[in-house]
Amino acid sequence: AIRSVVRGVGSYLPARCLTNADLAQMVDTSDEWIVQRTGIRTRHIAAEGEVTSDLAIHAARAALADAGLTPDDIDLIVLATSTPDNTFPATAVSVQAGLGITHGAAFDLQAVCSGFVFALATADNFLKTGAYRRCLVIGAETFSRILDWSDRTTCVLFGDGAGALVLEAVRDEEEGRGVLTSHLRSDGRHKNKLYVDGGVSSTRSVGFLRMEGREVFRHAVGMITDVIVDAFEATGESADTIDWFVPHQANRRIIDASAVKLGIAPEKVVITVDQHGNTSAASIPLALAAAHADGRIKRGDLVLLEAMGGGFTWASALVRW
Ligand code: ACO
């Protein structure tokens, strides 16, 4: 059987940081309120003219360097975003062109904050069939462009950034490495709890992010824990056997409550939401890149990924690094 093995990981954050103190100058909020409710202290914001594909290309190059591969080695790009450069073509083809790749295929995928796990599962399935050999799986977002900067209930929560993984189809067992399982879910009955109030076919405009924060919070922990239990049941793994829990970074309280409910030890939880805010589809690969770069996630480690977001969509994956 073919397994999709992680060969490299990389990320990119725009240079400009926006702190809670900066936000307190813009809307009626405070560092204390934001930290207490969300755990967020600062977030990165893309420069004028810096678009999602720019962030994605930086992250992809970093992942390729980490893998010791060149763009020529890549024959598939699956890019998760809800903030594409343009309505079309896909941001993934801009990344492909930016990297100088002219073979294979590149496309976008949209599942809001769950986008990266959806993209990972999609890439894994393409690689397992033998259709492609090496895939860049990218999460890249510029949520700053869809924020209503006068709405304190949403503008304090999000940031910009990108992260990428290189996945390679491997025929021979490499000590059980690779994507072991993935579980994707959605339930469109919740579509109006977290959405953008504009779009091509409805308003012919871009619109702003709108969210019923309490409603999202109310559903989050249950959905997250359910889909993780699915991953544990499919593999026989558990809170005790995983080495790292790398959740979507939306809110510190959601992450902590999920870990407690699942019985995952706090020292196994990778947290970046304090530094990045919620970067939607980029948050998991950004956190993976951080924990890989500082030596926490090592070859052979069992890594649990989880996300939940607009739709609602929610998803989990287990990866032997
Ligand atoms: N600064 C100061 N006060 C604020 C702010 C702010 N930035 N935002 C809201 N408030 C006020 C509200 O107006 C309200 O005031 P009122 O009581 O006078 O009406 C008060 O604070 C409490 O507001 P709530 O919305 O009830 O606050 P809550 O404790 O629920 O926290 C939060 C809000 C942080 C948004 C929380 O609901 C939450 O984290 N929800 C999940 C949101 C999330 O993580 N979304 C993303 C997940 S999915 C994805 O990643 C796309």
Strand tally: 13
Largest sheet: 5 strands, mixed
What structural class should be given to the helix and strand makeup? alpha/beta
Number of helices: 10
CATH topology of the largest domain: Peroxisomal Thiolase, Chain A, domain 1
Series of secondary-structure elements, N-terminal to C-terminal: EEHHEHEHEHEHEEEEHEHHHEE
In helices, the fraction of residues equals: 25-40%
Task: Calculate the mean pLDDT score and round it.
Answer: 98
- Beta-strand portion reads 25-35%
CATH homologous superfamily grouping of the largest domain: Thiolase/Chalcone synthase
Bound molecules: acetyl coenzyme *A
Q: What gap, in angstroms, lies between the N and C termini?
A: 18 Å
Note the quaternary state here: single chain
Instruction: Report the uncertain regions.
Output: none
Domain count: the total is 2
Under the CATH scheme, the architecture of the largest domain is: 3-Layer(aba) Sandwich
Shape: globular
CATH class of the largest domain: Alpha Beta
What does this structure look like?
The protein has 10 helices and 13 strands. It is globular, with a radius of gyration of 18 Å. The chain folds into 2 domains: 3-170, Peroxisomal Thiolase, Chain A, domain 1 (3-Layer(aba) Sandwich); 178-320, Thiolase/Chalcone synthase (Peroxisomal Thiolase, Chain A, domain 1). A 5-stranded mixed β-sheet has the order 1-7-6-4-5, with helices on both faces. A 4-stranded mixed β-sheet has the order 8-13-12-11, with helices on both faces. The two termini are 18 Å apart. It has 321 residues and is an alpha/beta fold. Helix content is 33%, strand content 26%. Residues 29, 33-34, 37-38, 112-113, 152-153, 156, 194, 211, 213-214, 216-217, 250-251, 254, 278, 280, 308-310 line the site of acetyl coenzyme *A. Its EC number is 2.3.1.180. Residues 233-321 form the Beta-ketoacyl-[acyl-carrier-protein] synthase III C-terminal domain. Residues 107-188 form the Beta-ketoacyl-[acyl-carrier-protein] synthase III N-terminal domain. The active site is at 113, 248, 278.
